[in-house]
């Protein structure tokens, strides 16, 4: 009988110890989860953006780590030359053509966040990079797309409009604004801080025309590369 009582006490004692350890493990697990959660938060966008995600038809899961940023220009000048930068009109162009960048910067420097960087946006199409042969026609998988509301030179816009149509565009709508360069620099800093494979140089930050010169002219000769403070390669 005494042995049975001792055995019961021993079992109870062990259960109490295990219960205490279990509680400690639960607290440790919760603490680790909280640290992990905080780390995730720190990888999010740290600058002011207007989140307006595109429809699901543009959300293609990314399978590769981004290494490049591709710059574009966009406007609705073909349909509305006198007022080519109405956000809703441009967003509709993306929807109608089933394309989208990750970000778009308007004339006042507002940054629109259109797709998560974890998704492969449809912004580059077919093309090639000499230094990255494996990216031929595949740059969407490896890049983040940024559109700037801007209009290029007359020759750069010939694919979209006639000379007569181009002349209807007010001069202040041609080229880029200082607010856009400021916003773009801020956005580049933020992206690169979270994407270690993207370097702030001309090999990793490129124009659409460099990838697809036979099809595209953007961001064009009016874009001043010297204003985005790239590192020497």
TrEMBL record:
The keyword S-adenosyl-L-methionine does not apply. Residues 54-220 form the N-acetylmuramoyl-L-alanine amidase domain. PROSITE patterns: PROKAR_LIPOPROTEIN (PS51257). It comes from the Bacteria. GO terms for biological process: cell wall organization; peptidoglycan catabolic process; peptidoglycan turnover. It catalyses: Hydrolyzes the link between N-acetylmuramoyl residues and L-amino acid residues in certain cell-wall glycopeptides. PANTHER family: N-ACETYLMURAMOYL-L-ALANINE AMIDASE AMID. This is N-acetylmuramoyl-L-alanine amidase. The lineage of its organism: Bacteria, Bacillati, Bacillota, Bacilli, Bacillales.
């Amino acid at each position: 009988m005494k042995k049975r009582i001792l055995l019961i006490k021993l079992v109870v004692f062990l259960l109490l110890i295990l219960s205490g350890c279990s509680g400690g493990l639960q607290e440790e697990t919760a603490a680790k989860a909280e640290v992990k959660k905080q780390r995730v938060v720190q990888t999010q966008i740290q600058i002011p953006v207007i989140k307006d995600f595109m429809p699901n038809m543009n959300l293609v899961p990314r399978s590769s780590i981004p290494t490049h940023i591709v710059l574009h220009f966009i406007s609705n000048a073909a349909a509305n030359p006198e007022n080519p930068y109405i956000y809703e009109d441009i967003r509709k162009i993306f929807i109608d053509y089933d394309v989208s960048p990750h970000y778009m910067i308007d004339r006042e420097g507002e940054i629109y966040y259109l797709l998560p960087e974890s998704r492969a946006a449809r912004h580059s199409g077919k093309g090639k990079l000499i230094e990255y042969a494996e990216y031929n026609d595949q740059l969407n998988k490896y890049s983040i797309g940024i559109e700037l509301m801007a209009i290029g030179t007359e020759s750069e816009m010939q694919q979209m409009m006639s000379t007569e149509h181009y002349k209807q565009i007010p001069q202040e709508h041609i080229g880029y604004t200082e607010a856009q360069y400021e916003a773009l620099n801020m956005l580049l800093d933020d992206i690169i801080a979270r994407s270690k494979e993207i370097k702030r140089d001309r090999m990793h930050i490129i124009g659409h025309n460099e990838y697809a010169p036979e099809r595209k002219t953007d961001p064009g000769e009016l874009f001043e590369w010297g204003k985005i403070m790239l590192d020497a390669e």
